[in-house]
Amino acid sequence: MKILILPGDGIGPEITAATLAVLDRANALFKLGLEWQREEIGLPSLKKEGTTLPARVLDAARAAAGVILGPLATYDYPARDQGGLNPSAEFRTKLDLYANIRPAKSRLASGSPASRSTS
């Protein structure tokens, strides 16, 4: 299964590296058959290609079984007409996605609604 890795910019590459360390271990342990395809987006891509989201990366996202998108420093991007597209927003609109899912975990006794009994 091919997974597209987009480290992003700002703190994105550091967070993506930690994520991949865990996934590499799980892939080896459970023989998941995951394959990584890495592409640049964000500020590194803007510097090299004049856009924060090259069209070929959007095509790669369409072809991949999944995408790992690292955090992006979108406030540092130039105007859209200068190549400063927001990759997250572009993915949501161009790929018909309706949610930007972030993992979350509730802890018992934390006071969160999920930790309260409904019985």
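Next protein, fold it too.
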Amino acid sequence: MDLYVAAFGFGLVSMSVIAIAAVGFTMQFGITNMINLAYGEVMISSAYVAYYLNKAGISIWFGMVAGALFGAVFSFLLNRIVYAPFLRRGTSHIGMVIVSLAVSLMIANLLLPIVGYYSVSYQDTTGGLIRAGGIVLTTNQIAIIGVAVLLMLLIHGLLRYTRLGKAMRATAANPTLARNCGIPTQRVVDAVWLITGALCGLAGVVAAMNSDSFAIANGAGFLITALAAAVLGEVVAFGILVAVMVLRPQGLLAKRGALAAAG
């Protein structure tokens, strides 16, 4: 039972990391109608920005803010310089997917000579331990959960109660009608790329914080996780994740792998 409770606590932290990444990816797709396969590479790039700041002696929490800012600016520039010109030429949805995949590969290959292939980790990111029943989490893991909850509330408030949020929903529903009604859809799209880019960068840093180490290759894994959560729906994905953590904390294929090794 203690193992199940501990796994549940670990699942809460993992869900918080996935939530931040998935919400940004979902907003980006829902409003701009584009599947950005470079999302994971922006996440890992932001994680490295925080890493180098942390390595220079700056707190990882300031590094988290820097990662979010980097993700916002990087995503905005990607759209303005790369994606928007293709969209103006009438590139199809599948064509934009291919473009974003090419951008993803370019970012990974440009980043590799800079950061190297080996894994790195942040310094002093665990914090003290907090026990609640059988759940044992570090203070930083509690902070990650708190950041995720706060962001979900802020995004909900933005989309539901602000003028920008209403413009975002209108643009997502029918951009042509929204433009004809006087909504500056280009500015709305720019704001979306900035906001979702910040979420992307922040997600990259907290995902790296929640790992013992990370490397350039983790960018693809970040994308797959965010894409799966966005496609399945966050609640369903989180429910499956918790069920796996509780019922099979050793992994779905662990027993099969052990039998194959024994054979």
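About the second fold: Residues 2-253 form a domain with the ABC transporter involved in vitamin B12 uptake, BtuC fold (CATH 1.10.3470).
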